[in-house]
Design goal:
Layout: H1 8-24, E1 32-38, H2 46-56, E2 61-67, H3 83-96, E3 105-108, E4 112-115, H4 119-166, E5 190-194, E6 198-203, E7 212-227, E8 235-243, E9 247-252, E10 257-262, E11 271-278, E12 284-291
Parallel strand pairs: 1-2
Antiparallel strand pairs: 1-3, 3-4, 5-6, 6-10, 7-8, 7-9, 7-11, 11-12
Length: 299
């Protein structure tokens, strides 16, 4: 049987398309999301609040304070707490198989939870998560290299088959096969843009189906609270990147997604974070944050 000759232009186009796909799979580093569940009525929380403040200044980290409500009965009602934050922490506990919730708790990228006042453990959790993402991206890069090698080999084999066909020589060269690679965690690109009227969220496509929730957090970058009673009576504590009402604003299935949301009123804020999270309370796939220091006026 004489093999079918392929057009050199088609061969080159195929190889170029493979190279583009392999390059598109290599997303750059993304920020690690650190959530602190805290309370003004918790005497062990202030060191965690200080740590969260330091993390909020670190490049490559989105650090969010989420004050909860269940310690309000200890003699002081948290002035920043919300039931939405409490529900989110309890949902994490259910997803992680924990028997209950506690403060201060830090959850790193939706997958690792540690006591929020233990700085060494928090730093180790961030480093571990960053290493996991780097390893996943290394696997994507290796896959891309294998695909590129296959494309180059295919060009050579097609050329050889075409030459054999011209000489009526049976083709015997097998096509190289890329071995299957186990699924890797994608890095989902997220970008944010605000106008005077709207918030625009653009989320890029990744290979394979996904089932993720798009969360939006309105943030106040710094709120200082004088606490007159309760376990922290007499202290003034500054909370950083305070969220009061995390909201699910979309569902991400792996295809490119654009959302346009009207500017929300309510609590003044000077920052917005958007997190794409597997399932809803699973591992973070992508995240972005924007801040506008000139907008915020503490009340």
């Amino acid at each position: 049987m004489v093999p079918v000759m392929r057009s050199p232009r088609r061969i080159v186009a195929f190889a170029f398309a493979v190279l583009l796909c392999a390059g598109a799979a290599q997303a750059g580093p993304r920020p690690i999301v650190v959530e602190l569940y805290t309370s003004q009525g918790c005497s062990s929380c202030p060191p965690a609040d200080v740590l969260l403040g330091r993390l909020a200044q670190r490049p490559g980290v989105i650090a969010i304070s989420l004050p909860i409500t269940y310690w309000d009965m200890l003699g002081w009602k948290d002035t920043l707490a919300s039931e939405a934050n409490t529900r989110r922490q309890k949902a994490y506990a259910a997803a992680m198989g924990h028997g209950g919730v506690y403060t201060p708790q830090i959850i790193v990228d939706g997958v690792i939870d540690v006591v929020g006042s233990r700085a060494g453990a928090v730093e180790a959790a961030i480093a571990d998560r960053r290493a996991e993402l780097a390893a996943a991206q290394a696997m994507v890069l290796a896959r891309g290299n294998a695909v590129r090698a296959q494309a180059a080999a295919r060009v050579e084999i097609d050329a050889a088959r075409a030459a054999d066909a011209a000489r009526a020589v049976p083709a015997a060269m097998p096509m190289p096969v890329v071995p299957p690679m186990p699924p890797v965690e994608p890095v989902v690109p997220v970008s944010l843009r605000e106008t005077p009227q709207d918030m625009h969220i653009d989320i890029g496509a990744v290979p394979g189906p996904q089932n993720a929730t798009v969360w939006m957090f309105q943030l106040r970058s710094a709120v200082s609270v004088a606490i007159p009673s309760g376990e922290n009576a007499g202290r003034t504590i500054t909370y950083r990147n305070v969220a009061s009402d995390p909201r699910a604003v979309g569902v991400y299935r792996g295809k490119a997604l654009s959302l346009t949301l009207p500017k929300a009123g309510g609590v003044p804020h000077d920052g917005v974070a958007v997190i794409v999270q597997q399932g809803g309370y699973g591992h973070v796939l992508g995240a972005a944050m924007i801040s506008r220091p000139d907008y915020y006026a503490e009340q």
